[in-house]
Task: inverse folding
């Protein structure tokens, strides 16, 4: 659907309003009527922007939250050009997850979407991972170019390993409410990069 | 509840039968009646062993599946006394997750339990993690004692890092259907152990 700039703004207002409600109350506890009320949207407007109903809106909010995962790490993630910046990005990651604790908004959404539309949920996560990994690989290449790390380091594999440490740490944080796993695994992944 | 050996056998039959049904059809698609039929159990028997009903049975099956996560890695996990055995254990982990793909039975259950009884679900995962981590730490200590790795290596921290690599790899496997993350992260965690 091609939207006018005003249409795009309305759609965005609905998506961010829904995202805020989901974060606040939990996905299962929010109805389309709640979202209409919170975003001052009529039934016909909601249907106009999301003809597929609730599951289409959930997908749009999941895309928005996936963007947010990367945006929360910016501008650090896009500028990992020296070791000091990597350390600052590491601190940012720890802070994000420490504040978020069990409440990862994206995984709450994909858990719901996995039942309705697993392929679409998977696509959103894969696309986000690819972009995340590309940023990290660019950062590894920068360290390699400036001679801060072993030039034989494989940027893509290293990026994938760092991402796996974060995802594992975040999953164990949700399961156990302990930050230890994330902190240890991320430290170890970065230390072994530098060795 | 203290059970006679016959009572314990009946309870076990119900739990393993329910676990098999959950694995086959998905947790949401299995009713208590399905479980009674598959395990040849009467309503009063089921109520006798699980007075708390479905959620109590789900908890018992989650405990069983948590045991299974560790049992699937045995006898290797309990005998990580030299580097060759660590490699064999690594191969076993890769094989388990490659066969399982998106279908992790424990996380399917804890996802359901997180709504009904989050504290109980968390306890099961924490207890399993502790035992898993203890096995790995014992293995790290063995390598350290035999001089195969740097004696300054912290066994508990190393064990936590290896577990985080596996959990991250398994989570990304579920999200993307790619084994790459698990293979890379586990290889990297073990390589850095040996360095």
Result:
């Amino acid at each position: 659907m091609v939207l006018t700039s005003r249409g795009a703004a309305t759609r965005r207002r609905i998506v961010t309003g829904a995202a805020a409600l989901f974060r606040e109350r939990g996905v299962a506890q929010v109805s389309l009527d709640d979202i209409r009320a919170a975003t001052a949207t009529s039934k016909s407007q909601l249907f106009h922007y999301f003809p597929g109903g609730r599951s289409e809106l959930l997908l749009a909010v999941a895309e928005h939250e996936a963007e947010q995962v990367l945006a929360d790490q910016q501008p650090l993630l896009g500028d990992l050009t020296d070791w000091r910046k990597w350390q600052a990005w590491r601190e940012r990651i720890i802070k994000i997850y420490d504040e978020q604790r069990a409440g990862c908004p994206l995984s709450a959404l994909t858990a719901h979407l996995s039942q309705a539309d697993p392929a679409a949920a998977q696509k959103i996560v894969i696309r986000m991972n690819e972009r995340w990994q590309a940023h990290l690989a660019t950062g590894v290449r920068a360290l390699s170019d400036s001679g801060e790390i072993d030039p034989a380091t494989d940027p893509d594999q290293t990026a994938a390993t760092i991402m796996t440490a974060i995802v594992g740490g975040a999953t164990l944080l949700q399961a156990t409410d302990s930050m230890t796993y994330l902190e240890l695994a991320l430290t170890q992944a970065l230390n072994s990069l530098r060795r």
About this structure: Chain B touches chain A at residues 28, 110-111, 115, 122, 125-126, 129, 157, 160-161, 163-169, 171-172, 175-177, 180-182, 184-185, 188-189, 191-192, 195 (CB under 8 Å). Chain B has two domains: 5-51, 60-194. Residues 105 and 153 of chain B are 33 Å apart (CA to CA).
